């Protein structure tokens, strides 16, 4: 019995020992779990911080005119700095800030690779590291950014090439190693948000748009999307595509023609960005072969001579106007402007000299126009006499014949005035496209004018006037006043004899006097170089008017011819 009680005691003791051990083990493991969890959480934080640090890694590639900042996240160009240009600083009211075509990753491009199993590699999510930086002959620098294949072996290389001299274009190649078996189609997506760089955002936005070159039947033509509204197109056979601003452009040039491309332009009405332009396309690859494709990027000014050197038609993205106006600007005004630039004078003086040269070239036409206007005023009494003599509609043909005899006698042809005016109209309107697009005038000052490619302002208004704006341009005022004086001189004592007194058609003289007011409203926000040109042109017109009247037009001789004609007619009537 005693032994039996002992066995019970032993069993109870053993049970208590096991219970204690179990409790001890449980709490010990929970503590261990908490320690391990804390360790792994710490490891996770360290990995996150490492990735966060990687996101801040940038690599510079530069030459004399460009500085590129390349990010290790996606391997993209996150910043493009143009060393020789400045952007407009609103606080200083002139171009003083560093000019960035791309900043804070406003320029994004990526490629997507996928396979049959549904795995997808998007290059924007890859981390690139600089694998090689080489300096070759002629100062060419090559930077290779390499990213590992996240699904196995192999890697992807982004290869950037830049020249040491004044080159605004860079080479860009994509090369894979052991990336197959991915699908044949590789998608490319390139997007840029266009930064505002100039004084007048609305004016700058009207010159910002997407241009592209299409190759058809052994020739290329340059086309564009709307600059005013959001637009998208599916385009075939693209040679290159340009994201153009008022004075700068980002041009994407593939080594091969893209057969099918989707292009979209989205307009922003406010903010630091003007537009968002993007394109998407696909490239076919051969089975079990590595992907290798090359491009070129151009980040630079819209300089006509510089763009023409590339022999790809890049110069056609400079908006010199449509049709005949483009040819006038490219082969008349631009040639004169570039010739006068060699004088190294102030650009305001160059515009004045350019106006004088153009007026001298057009002086024969101007002389005929002034001669016609002056003689028409001299023969006004004779024309009034003929109008009174032939009032009936039945005598209209006879009146016209007698009028032509009078014009012939004094040596004028009324149609010549119309032809000379028609000839000068394209020249007048072509200048509206010429001055706002010439980058050499950008940021150049003259007297009180801060920038000849933008409006000059002597007074900011606290309100907005429709068609006029919220500022007062002194050059526009001077031009409008000069135009009014010239209109008054050229039409002084002149009456429109082409219509009857009872006609309901408005007097043409009244319309001519409205022109200074219309131009005051219309060009107040245009480039100040345009107002300077027109002001100088009208001052020359006024001076030319007095010069012809005093030294080139013999009014007495013309009056003698008229009197001679009257005497002949009087003698003929006496004989009869």
Characterize the structure shown.
This protein is of the alpha+beta class and 576 residues long. 41% of the residues lie in helices and 29% in strands. It contains 13 helices and 20 strands. The strands form 3 sheets. Strands 5, 6, 7, 8, 9, 10, 11, 12, 13, 14, 15, 16, 17 and 18 form a 14-stranded antiparallel sheet that branches. Strands 1-2-3-4 form a 4-stranded antiparallel sheet, with no helix packed on it. Strands 19-20 form a two-stranded antiparallel sheet. A hairpin with a 6-residue loop joins β8 and β9. α5 (347-361) packs across α12, α6 crosses α12 (528-552) and α10 runs antiparallel to α11. The longest helix has 54 residues, at 2-55. The termini are far apart.
Give me a quick take on this structure.
The protein is of the alpha+beta class and 576 residues long. Helices cover 41% and strands 29% of the residues.
Q: Which residues sit in consecutive blocks of at least 5 with pLDDT less than 50?
A: 1-6, 26-53, 501-505
Helix content: 40-55%
For the termini, the CA-CA separation is: 183 Å
| SS class | alpha+beta
Largest sheet entry: 14 strands, antiparallel
> Which overall shape is indicated by the principal axes computed on the Cα atoms?
elongated
Count of discrete alpha- or pi-helical segments spanning 4 or more residues: 13
Mean of pLDDT? 79
Gyration radius from CA atoms, angstroms: 39 Å
How much of the sequence lies in strands comes to 25-35%
Strand segment count:
20
């Amino acid at each position: 019995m005693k032994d039996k009680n002992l066995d019970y005691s032993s069993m109870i003791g053993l049970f208590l020992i096991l219970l204690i051990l179990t409790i001890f083990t449980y709490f010990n493991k929970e503590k261990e779990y908490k320690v391990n969890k804390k360790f792994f959480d710490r490891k996770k934080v360290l990995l996150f911080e490492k990735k966060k640090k990687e996101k801040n890694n940038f690599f510079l590639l530069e030459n004399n005119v460009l500085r590129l900042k390349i990010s290790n996240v996606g391997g993209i160009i996150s910043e493009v700095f143009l060393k020789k240009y400045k952007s407009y600083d609103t606080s200083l009211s002139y171009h003083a800030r560093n000019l960035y075509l791309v900043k804070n990753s406003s320029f994004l491009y990526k490629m997507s690779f996928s396979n049959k199993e549904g795995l997808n590699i998007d290059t924007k999510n890859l981390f690139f590291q600089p694998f090689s930086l080489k300096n070759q002959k002629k100062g060419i620098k090559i930077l290779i950014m390499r990213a590992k294949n996240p699904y196995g072996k192999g890697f992807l290389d982004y290869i950037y090439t830049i020249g040491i001299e004044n080159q605004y274009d860079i080479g860009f190649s994509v090369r894979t190693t052991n990336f197959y078996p991915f699908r044949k189609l590789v998608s490319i997506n390139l997007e840029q948000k266009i930064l505002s760089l100039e004084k007048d955002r609305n004016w700058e936005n009207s010159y910002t748009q997407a241009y592209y070159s299409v190759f058809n039947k052994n020739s290329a033509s340059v086309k564009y999307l709307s600059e005013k509204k959001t637009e998208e197109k599916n385009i075939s056979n693209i040679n290159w595509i340009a994201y153009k601003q008022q004075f700068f452009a980002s041009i994407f040039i593939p080594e091969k023609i893209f057969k099918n491309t989707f292009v979209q332009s989205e307009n922003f009405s406010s903010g630091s960005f003007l537009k968002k332009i993007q394109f998407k396309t696909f490239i076919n690859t051969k089975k079990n072969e590595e992907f290798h494709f090359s491009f070129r990027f151009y980040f630079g000014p819209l300089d006509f001579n510089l763009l023409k050197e590339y022999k790809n038609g890049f110069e056609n993205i400079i908006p010199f106007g449509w049709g005949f106006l483009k040819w006038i600007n490219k082969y008349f005004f631009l040639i004169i402007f570039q010739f006068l630039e060699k004088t190294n004078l102030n650009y305001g003086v160059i515009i004045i000299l350019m106006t004088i040269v153009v007026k001298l070239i057009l002086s024969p036409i101007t002389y005929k126009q002034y001669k016609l206007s002056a003689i028409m005023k001299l023969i006004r009494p004779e024309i009034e006499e003929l109008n009174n003599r032939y009032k009936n509609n039945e005598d209209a043909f006879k009146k016209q014949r007698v009028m032509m005899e009078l014009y012939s006698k004094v040596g004028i042809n009324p149609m010549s005035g119309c032809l000379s005016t028609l000839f000068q109209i394209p020249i007048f309107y072509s200048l509206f496209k010429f001055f706002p697009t010439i980058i050499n005038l950008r940021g150049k000052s003259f007297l009180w004018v801060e920038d000849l490619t933008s409006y000059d302002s002597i007074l900011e208004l606290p309100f907005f006037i429709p068609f006029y704006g919220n500022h007062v341009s002194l050059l526009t005022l001077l031009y409008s006043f000069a135009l009014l004086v010239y209109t008054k001189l050229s039409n002084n004592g002149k009456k429109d004899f082409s219509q009857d007194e009872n006609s309901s058609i408005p007097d043409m003289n009244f319309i001519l006097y409205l022109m200074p007011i219309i131009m005051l409203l219309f060009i107040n926000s245009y480039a100040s170089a345009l107002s300077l040109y027109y002001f100088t042109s009208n001052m020359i017109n006024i001076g030319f008017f007095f010069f012809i009247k005093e030294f080139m037009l013999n009014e007495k001789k013309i009056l003698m011819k008229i009197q001679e004609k009257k005497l002949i007619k009087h003698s003929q009537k006496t004989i009869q």
